[in-house]
Amino acid sequence: MDCPDFLSQEEKDFVESIRQRFSEELTSREAEGKAYLCFFGSVAVARILGAVEGNVDKAHEWFQTLLRTLSDPKTEALVQDVLQRVADCKSEKRDGSILPHYDTVKDFFNVQLCAPKLSPDGDAIMYMAMQDLDRDGILQHLDWEHWVTFSRACTVLHCVILDEISRESNRMARITLIVDAEGLSLEGMAHRTFSRAHRRDVIDSFQQKVAAEIVASVYVVNVPWTIANLFGLCKTFLPAKFLQKFRVLSGDSLKDTSFVTQCGGQEQVSSFFESRKGLASDNSHTHDRHQLFNMNTWPDEDELQSIAHLREKFGQQISERKQRGADWPCFFSDLALARVLRGNERYFSEASNWFQAFLKKMEKYNVDAIVKEMTQRLESGEGSRASFNMLPHADEIGKYFRCTFSAMKLTPAGDVIWFIPLGDFDRKSLAENVQWEHFVEFVRAMIVLRAIEAQKLSEGQHRMAKCIAIVDLQGSGIGTTGVPKVESFDEPNQKNVAFMREIIIDILGPVYVLNAPWVAVKAFNWFQSLVPERFSRKLVLLDGDGTADPDFLDLVGESQLKHLLATRVGLLSGEVDGDFGDTVVSAGESLSKCRDLKRGESISWATTVEAGDADSWLGVSDIISSATVIFHPELNAQEVAEDEVSLEELPILASDGEVTREYTADRDCVITLCWSNEHSRMRAKGLRYHIELQAKPSSDPK
């Protein structure tokens, strides 16, 4: 392998180290005629060092990944095919037209991979108009494998062209990329499903593994003014290396001398804009993603037809599952498959890819055993509602993580509410005191239980029920830089997050965030005004605890929200949810305690108010005792009984001594005990409380 003079001594030394360390693999490739210059030549190898900023160890790892990627027979065949097409090309212009599947791709994607004129520095220039990338059309009408093959072939062709230009110009040539956003609405700037699939099958699995440091700069032109300004604002927070490559311009920049010169001159830049065809301007294929996100109806006829195709494609696997009784409704019913479709914006190819990966994960993680166990636990309880205590190792993990897995009352539409107070999520203590395998079992069971519950609620309501999450940041330690990191927990927990994404889809609805820092709320609200709704629809930041937001109160229920907020203990600050204690209730504040009760169980709570130093001139210290009960919803009842009651408010004076109250549940419920000092704006009150639970008598009928 030759080593051009324009390589630095450091680069030459690195190339030599690669030749020595991987001599066996390279020698074998030489003998087989597979030591492709565009990937294994000295220029291509030297690029790797620049891609990892001179870190030789990382560069060696990168080269090893390159070898593994190109050793795949399918990938090897693609590289050889592209190289043969380049060799057979009789014209000097080598563009996408010589690549595999161009004839079918060209109706959905128009791009100039390498413009006739190079930049003044000698870099290749690539022009891509976003209005000529019909992402909906590709997903709906093009064989996805054809798109992947064509896109990967583009990368191979670029590597070939850049290697040739580098040797001819005696410098390391790269690409100047021009991305033209003209004609693209703000809503159309991103396409979640296409971007996810393209990144998975082209960028992450191929491009980033074979093409090192091939892009010199990126110009994004004709960007909507708001996005251009937003990028300018965000530059403060972006890495310098990223910024060095990017320039975002709000106009076509034909009057920008620097831009025009760098991109090959006025004539060439003008020709770029004239080449636009508007392939993506036809919106007839565009799904109403907002409607899909909010859709909670039973599968319609079009979806049932796609579901039938899914069943046909995976007929053998589904049939085998049915024979052994493992075609669980939460994953294999028509409704569950409708979730797969809607979660992939009704693109059949993506829904098929997701489901195929899902089936593999089911086997890998033995999810069938989890489904069986959690189904039994849910069915052994009353109703169709799931609870934290149903999960494995709940007692052990509950010391460091508490949440209301399923609130008693559903939303008006019938969705379940999941309340997660991050002040009760002590990640550091959990990682230190709980066997990690136990937490993994807990999380996987939690995710599966969420799917089973959603299926049962959906069947009862004949609609697609979802889970509305409320994340409370009170006491979490969050600041302007976010929630404090706990490396011993956060890094291994990424596998749990991946499991959730691989097993359930379109079950989680909007996430409401309470008690976020004021700056974060204002910044988020400002950002929402600039970007399409679908960018931020999953996350809703509310001022304070949400009690001042009428829409949120209608969704959750005012009394239930107070219940949920009262479940917070403050595990991160060392608090314990005890049944007795001495405390001080600050002026204008209150103390609340929540307890679950089964039918027939009783609860009593004793209260003593301590006399204060100021009683002689401000009056006897007092606390208002009250309680609110929310009953388990009767989903299938013809006549819904009262679902909430409030016990009478009782003023308790320091002079009363110990006062005991009690309540017996005639249905499953959650009761919130409240000791309020909200009526006193001047002084705090000392309080002693003692809570006792009594199980129902054994003589009670079950």
UniProtKB/TrEMBL annotation:
SUPFAM superfamilies for the chain? CRAL/TRIO domain, Supernatant protein factor (SPF), C-terminal domain
Give residue ranges for domain CRAL-TRIO. 101-284, 393-573
InterPro entries per the UniProt record, alphabetical: CRAL-TRIO_dom (IPR001251), CRAL-TRIO_dom_sf (IPR036865), GOLD_dom_sf (IPR036598), SEC14/CRAL-TRIO_domain (IPR051064)
Superkingdom of the source species: Eukaryota
Cellular component terms per the entry's GO annotation: cytoplasm
Q: Which PROSITE patterns match?
A: CRAL_TRIO
Q: Tell me what this protein is called.
A: CRAL-TRIO domain-containing protein
